[in-house]
Amino acid sequence: MSGAGVHCARSQYRGRLLLGAASAVIGLALMSQPSSAATLDDVMKRLDALEKKNDKLAKENAELRSMIGAKPSAAPAAAPAAGSTKGNPVLHAGVATVKQPEAAVSVGGHPLITKAGPMGPIIDNTTVTLYGHADLSLTLNNVGVFDQDKPGFTIGSNSSYFGIRARHNLTPYGYEGWSVLAQYEELVEVSATPSERAAFGSRDSYIGFDGPYGAIKVGKSDTPYKKSTAAFDPFASTVGDYNSIMGNTGGDNRAEFDFRLGHAIWYESPIVSGFQFSAMASPGQNYARDSSDFAYGEFNCTGSAVRGSGSGFASDSPIGVGACNDGNFASAYSTAATYKNGGWTVIGAYELHQNVNRVGDESGTLADGSTIVTGIHDEWAAKAGTGYRFKDPVGDLQLYAAYEWLRRQGAPAAFNERSRDGVFASVTQFIGQWSASASYAHAFKTPGNPAMLSANVGAIAANATVQGNLFSDAANMYAVGTRYRFNEWASWYLVGALLDQGKGAHYCLGVSGGAFGFCSRDANNDTIGGATIKAVATGVTLDF
Question: What does pTM read for this prediction?
Answer without folding.
Answer: 0.75
